[in-house]
Design goal:
Creatine Kinase, Chain A, domain 2, three-stranded antiparallel beta sheet, 10% strand, seven-stranded antiparallel beta sheet, alpha+beta, 566 residues, 20 helices
Length: 566
């Protein structure tokens, strides 16, 4: 994420829109809001033994040590034609180069846009940046629109889904080959699923104070990495909660699933769904597929993480060897290993560091340690034009700080299996009142465990709110707490209810929302001249940068790939 190395001019984001989805004070009507108070004092001792002590010590130290962590958003959206079908057009030239534009790129498909914000200290700034990018993009789309849901639109057959293209340079061709390999390995339809990534790093001022508080004598980068990994392990433990709260993919077009989802129920003639599903995107139908589930990457230390990831990149996989690497002069994949490159490893959360030019992610982590975490479990909020809002970001920030300060034992094989089962179960059955999670070998309800987690999140939120002398973080946490007791108010439940009420299909409902979002971005205050010019200039300059990269190549693709993997 380049976000942590850059920041937009603050003037870009200091505008006020007339839409409640990005209103600064109270932003969460789309998720259902009540005034219910919270009264759960039960804590999960597994995570919270030292949590209160650490949070109180940080609060007593003063200086708002937890406030001002950097937040960045990566939001994917499929381009669609006016009738809702997947766009077959090239990446719009007005958006610049998909390879080198810092704010607007593509993911798997030429039609799958990805918006990348810089990192900001406030959720208000991050949301405005996302909105600016949406508005600028719509100015370049003509009659096309952005699909508002995580699960794809009326999707064509596998071989008709266009791969993203990045020009003739060696690095550009490598990016396309990588995506071609993903298509062979997992299917192009699955790779067309979209989501929102939340990137977060705690404030730099926090680390020295926290290390001193714990009496730790290790090098600061090692200390950061150790505790970021603790955060990641805890987020793995409680990550099912984000699927329940933010899951927005309980239904899908039958054109997407083919025969693979035939065991699911039909919501309409062309819609499959899980009646109590939250995030089919994160189920075994989507990213938690069997190929990936066989790859075990340790999160118990940074050296183990790098070791296991490197081993997966260098271990041959017989089923991928059958695909072939270079067949009839064309690369089908970068290699026949378990993972082509590091980014192929899917997870709810990843440790990250901004890499230098040409540097591999594992090498960046070895060089400088963990710099931030990338949360990948958020579905697009179909009810919000930007796909995410401030309360979601505020809750995620407070949740991640809770995960950082709570006890974080090493993960055992048994616990990893529980985590996998909890994730898949919540994704498919999370709103079922009879569904139970497994914790320490015992069954526990989403309500019981969820309230325990949010109790800790509320304590963090109160500390974050002290800086601005308001209750915006606490309000966000209380809104999520309400959803624990009101599963019918969750985004996933609302999607199914709205489809039924309109007597339509998932496709019809999502298409109407796409039209509504397009009209919303056309109706609100346009970005100021400085913001618009910044995005236009970035588009122009990105095209020039791509040309310079292409002109600088002095070796062929085969040699380039050999050197890269050497």
């Amino acid at each position: 994420m380049l976000c942590l190395a850059a920041s937009l001019d603050q003037n870009v984001v200091r505008r006020v829109y007339k839409c409640e989805t990005i209103e600064k004070a109270r932003v969460f009507d789309s998720y259902g809001k009540t005034d219910a108070a919270f009264d759960c004092d039960i804590r999960d001792d597994h995570l919270n033994q030292q949590f209160d002590k650490r949070l109180n010590a940080l609060a007593s130290a003063g200086g708002d040590l937890l406030y001002g962590g950097l937040k960045g958003i990566e939001k994917e959206s499929l381009r669609i034609s006016a009738d809702g079908s997947l766009s077959m057009l090239d990446h719009p030239i007005g958006l610049g180069s998909a390879m080198t534009n810092r704010y607007i790129t593509t993911d798997f498909s030429e039609a799958l846009l990805e918006f990348v914000t810089p990192a900001f200290e406030t959720t208000w700034e991050a949301l405005h940046c996302v909105c600016d990018i949406h508005q600028f993009t719509y100015s370049q789309l003509g009659e096309e629109m952005l699909w508002p849901a995580s699960m794809p639109c009326r999707i064509p057959e596998e071989d008709k889904i266009p791969l993203a293209r990045y020009g003739s340079s060696n690095v550009g061709q490598m990016k396309t080959i990588y995506r071609r390999g993903l298509g062979y390995r997992y299917g192009r339809q699955m790779q067309s699923i979209a989501g929102v990534h939340f990137n977060y790093s705690v404030p730099e001022k926090f680390w020295e104070a926290y290390r001193s508080m714990l009496g730790d004598k290790s090098a600061l980068n090692d200390f950061k990495s150790e505790h970021y990994l603790g955060l990641i392990r805890n987020f793995k433990r409680v990550g099912w909660l984000t699927l329940y709260l933010f899951g927005g993919s309980p239904a899908l077009c039958k054109s997407f699933a083919g025969g693979e989802a035939s065991a699911m129920k039909s919501l309409s003639d062309d819609t499959y769904f899980e009646p109590f599903g939250t995030s089919l995107r994160m189920s075994d139908l989507g990213y938690s597929n069997q190929n990936q589930s066989r790859i075990n990457i340790s999160l118990n230390s940074l050296s183990e993480y790098v070791r296991d990831l490197t081993e997966a990149i260098n271990t041959r996989e017989p089923s991928y060897e059958e695909i072939g690497v270079k067949v009839d002069g064309e690369y089908r994949q970068l290699n026949a290993n378990l993972l082509q490159i590091e980014n192929e490893f899917y997870s709810l959360v990843r440790p990250k560091r901004v890499a230098l030019s040409g540097e591999r992610p594992t090498a960046a982590l070895e060089r400088g340690g963990i710099e931030y975490v990338e949360i990948r479990s958020l579905d697009i909020n179909l009810f919000d034009p930007c796909g995410i809002n401030q309360n979601a970001m505020r809750f995620m920030e407070a949740l991640l700080i809770f995960c950082l300060l709570a006890d974080s034992p090493k993960l055992s094989d048994d616990e990893l299996q529980e985590i996998a089962n909890n994730q898949t179960g919540t994704a498919k059955f999370g709103r079922d009142p009879d569904f139970r999670l497994i914790r320490g070998g015992k069954k526990v309800s989403i309500s019981e465990w969820g309230h325990e987690i949010i109790d800790g999140v509320l304590a963090v939120a109160a500390e974050l709110d002290r800086h601005d002398n308001n209750d915006s973080y606490s309000e966000a946490a209380r809104l999520m707490q309400d959803l624990i007791d009101q599963p019918d108010a969750t985004p996933s439940a609302r999607i199914i209810a709205e489809i039924r009420q309109a007597n339509t299909s998932f496709f019809g409902f999502a298409l109407s929302m796409a039209q509504s979002h397009r009209d919303y971005f056309a109706s609100i205050t346009q970005p100021d001249d400085a913001s618009n010019e910044r995005l236009r200039r970035e588009a122009r300059e990105s095209l020039q940068r791509q040309q310079e990269i292409e002109a600088a190549d002095v070796i062929g693709l085969d040699e380039y790939l050999q050197q890269y993997f050497a």
